[in-house]
Design brief:
Helix content is 23%, strand content 22%. By secondary structure, it is α+β, with helices and mostly antiparallel strands. A three-stranded antiparallel sheet has the order 1-4-5. A two-stranded antiparallel ribbon has the order 2-3. β4 and β5 form a beta hairpin.
Amino acid sequence: MEQASNDPFLARIVALDYYLAPPSPGLDVTFSSLEGTVVELVPIIRIFGSTPAGQRVCLHLHQAFPYFYVPYADDLPTEPVEAAGFLRRLALAINTAMSMSGGMAAAAAATAADATNALTAAGAAGAPGLQDA
């Protein structure tokens, strides 16, 4: 039996794309706690390339969801129940905008009600790398 190597896997990226597929249990998110529903499709990034030894590589990268930061203003709800309601409305607005935009987000929104995987209210004060615009 071979021992696992601690050496990193190296590959030169030649091209990449993505596709949407049903989630693989144990590998992907299968339930949306935000929507309270089963996740129908998840994005999977496919990376094509070669190793330093010249072997060809096709890597399927799971759990790579698109993300972005939306500032949570001080005048927005801070009580847990009110904040949860606000975040659900924000998720609905994001899903609607993504379904109208085209691309992967539109495909996910058209086939699954929960294109938004998660929302987290977090303060940015003191967060490294974040600054006011």
